Amino acid sequence: MIGSTMLSPIPPIRADWLRAKLVEEASKRRVVVAIGIGLEREDYPEKVCRDVQRAVESGVAEVRVVGDKEAIERARRVYSDINAVTSRYPETELVNMLVNGEVDAVVRGTLSARKVIAELKRAYTLERLHRIGMLETYSHEAFFFAPVGIDEGNDLHDKVKLVEGGLRLHRALGLTPIVAVLSGGRIEDYGRSSEVDEMMDQAEELVKQVRERFGVEAYHQGILIEDAVKRATLIIAPNGVVGNIVFRVLTLIGGGGAFGAPVVDLLPRVFVDVSRAMSNYFDSIALSAALANLASTL
Fold first, then answer.
1. Which of the two residues, 79 and 273, has the higher pLDDT score?
2. Global pTM?
3. Where are the domains of the chain?
4. How far is Cα 245 from Cα 256, in angstroms, rounded to an integer?
């Protein structure tokens, strides 16, 4: 039941709790969210618009859909009352809407990741992005996870930035953070491989820095991610490639899901990245609207 105050749960966070929390925060003030629609696959416009209609009719947000002429025409077949923005360059239009303050938040939707990320970097003069995935296991446990991009989290400094961004999201949502740092083997495997040893050494150093700099609970979990999801709220993978594989295995093979991945470099501006393979964009719209309403706490 959604009340005026939702206390931070003891880990593991239940996905239904987080989903209800996001809807509660999103519904406090009706914000404007833009979401992109691409045409790389046949079902993209239809599946996005079904969730857009649900979000609008449930009062989660006012949603504007951004796409080229063909994408918008197909979207209207699903949701005739859609609030559409037609553009020959929808990736540029989507980012510009956030930059110019035309919308409160943006969800990438099914537009090209490469093109949208390039536009974000250009618009905000960023060399790289840092995203925190908000994921759900098949047994409906929710957790924050990073890195999720192959070029993110590949050195200690980058991982510290990811942790800092994750803690900002925890604070905004009223969650008590517990950080688990993954590496390449069980703790007792140290010495079996120089590559694994290097991962473990970096994990130990990251745990030390997180404790000292942020004053939160953090520990080295080794390779046992299955244990981390039961105890931690924020899990840090050894590098971006491993993180991206974990994300794909969980969401595309393992029966889990994703709420989305806020770009923490932009906070308090809200840009939620998503996978085009996702089947549920309602949660991403609710996440973006909730964060827009929580901007003063980010």
1. 273
2. 0.93
3. 13-126+265-298, 132-260
4. 13
